[in-house]
Amino acid sequence: CDKCLRNEDEVQVHSARTGHVNYSQCSDAVSSLTEDERREQMKKLQELLRAKKTQREEQERHEEIEREKKRRQQHKTLSSAKAKFEEDEVRRFVEQKKREKEEDRAYLEKLKAEIARDQEEKRARTASELPLIAPSNSTSLPTAVPKTNPTICRLHIRLPSGQSIKGEFGVNEPLSAVMLYVSQNWPNSSTFIDPQSIQLMTSFPKQEFTSEDRNRSLLDLGEFKHF
């Protein structure tokens, strides 16, 4: 810039103010500074240095603010992506549970239909049999099929649980023999069943047998005399 500087202090002041860094020897004579001028130069230099420091700090604060803004924006973007991912996961979970619930409902409906069909077939089979004798506390009715031999009676006895017991008896055997047979062949029973506690009845025509009938033969009982 062709400016002649007297000493190192002026060089520093000039550098701080202009940013110049390359200097050369000046051939022009420069008068020496007085003490007051030197103090003034030092004051200006200090002010320039403080101004530079303030400017640098301000720039650093600005850069830090920009970095913080960028960091927050990145965090916000990541948070939004995470929230969307979690929302999608919840939606997929709800949809999966809904599908499973629909599948369970369809399976139950199918199972109910199969049970109803089995019960209908069972009722149809029961209706085709000839009912003869059953426990009195049962809501189901037993059936019996007579054999061609007039001395033998085949009984199909329906239990309260819906299960049945089949047996063959001589027409001259007492009703108590049937009661004993039922107590000994009661399904899934691990305890002794007293034959005297068993009550029998026919379903068609309906007749309940009493204790007085226990010693009578099947032939003597009105429901069996035709065998």
From TrEMBL:
Region annotation Disordered: where it falls in the sequence: 50-84
A biological process term (GO) from this entry: negative regulation of proteasomal ubiquitin-dependent protein catabolic process
Keywords: Cytoplasm
InterPro entries: Ubiquitin-like_domsf, UBX_dom
Compartments (UniProt record): Cytoplasm
Limits of the UBX domain: 148-222
Highest taxon above the source species: Eukaryota
GO CC annotation, single: cytoplasm
Keyword Cytoplasm: yes
GO terms, molecular function: K48-linked polyubiquitin modification-dependent protein binding
Any Pfam family the entry gives: UBX
Comp. bias intervals (Basic and acidic residues): 50-68
UniProt-recorded name of the protein: UBX domain-containing protein
Organism placement in taxonomy: Eukaryota, Metazoa, Spiralia, Lophotrochozoa, Platyhelminthes
